[in-house]
Amino acid sequence: MKFAVNYSTHLGDLLKEGAVKVDLLKCPEWDGIVNAALPLGRVYIHFEISVGANNIQSLNFGLIDRFLNTTDTPHLNIHLSNDLALEADSPENRKAMLRLWKKDLASLSAAFPGVKIVAENLPWHEFLPHLRMAADPDLIRAIIEDCDLGLLLDLSHAQISANAFGMDFKDYIARLPLGRLSELHITGIREYANFPTDHFELQPDDWQVVNWAAEQIRAGAWRQPEIVAYEYGGIGDVFCWRTERSALQEQVPLLYDIFGEISLAT
Fold first, then answer.
1. Strand, coil or helix: what is 3?
2. How do the domains of the chain map onto residue ranges?
3. Which residue has the higher pLDDT, 239 or 253?
4. Confidence (pLDDT) at 197
5. Which of 15, 79, 85, 193 has the least CB density, counted as fewest CB within 10 Å?
């Protein structure tokens, strides 16, 4: 199990100073960011690929293939999304969404034969109404098991979706195929613009969730993932305003110790 953190200039500075350690630097599929991160350590790519949104054919398959072969990316990640035309939750639309997912996954499997695909749960709330079905844990389990995928469990997304469904987040997560866990994402959640928003530093409540998840892995209740990624920090307007050097310096070593201890014990 490897511990990863989103690449950012603050993280890069801390790595150069020897103030923090990571096993992998998590980057988007952008050459500029990857080239900045590579001198600092091993890099893996988190791709912006959504299945079910009718945009698979617009992907740059050559770019994806290049990064799969030139970085330490262990699998091809996808996000379980949905076509806006299927926003209403109905038996017919649920079946149609599963068909769309399977069609897109077949295209990806044909383009990248032999590459393991892992599916990430996206968050559903009032601001993202079209993701209601896509965030349903039973549908997530169905597509992952039917298509032999790995699970990329985003803890923050699961909490946001569970709250919208009126469920306890632990019950929500228990309905996912945890025996197929391949990657785990961790971030803090805050209210922002009246909606729960992730990719913040960890708050006390977030640490409770992190420690609970670590215990599930330690106890063997969940499969040990190949990667645990702290998705805090980044490059560009989306991330820079919520990337603090002090938070990275404090929290990255704590997380490295928690998940590194599990790796050493197994």
1. strand
2. 2-265
3. 253
4. 78
5. 193
Nearest to 180 by CA among 157, 201, 152: 152
* Token pair listed for 55: 């945009």
Please tell me what DSSP assigns to residue 243.
Answer: -
Q: Contact at 8 Å (CB) between 143 and 102?
A: yes
In sign, the C-alpha dihedral spanning 162, 104, 148, 210 is negative
Rounded to whole angstroms, how far apart are CA atoms 133 and 70? 35
Both tokens assigned to 252 = 């990255």
pTM of the model: 0.95
Percentage of residues of the chain with pLDDT beyond 90: 83
Helix (H, G, I), strand (E, B) or coil at 179: helix
Tokens coding 201: 């530093």
Confidence of residue 245 (pLDDT cuts 50, 70, 90): very high
Please give the helix or strand (H or E) that residue 137 lies within, else none: helix 137-146
The residue among 94, 108, 107, 92 whose CA lies nearest residue 47 is 108
Indicate left, alpha or beta for 107 from its phi (over 0: left) and psi (-120 to 50: alpha).
alpha
Radius of gyration of the chain, Cα coordinates, nearest whole angstrom: 18
From residue 32, give the alpha-carbon distance in Å to each of 36, 38, 64, 236, 245.
6, 10, 15, 12, 21
Of 94, 174, 184, residue with least CA distance to 137: 174
CATH dotted code for 2-265: 3.20.20.150
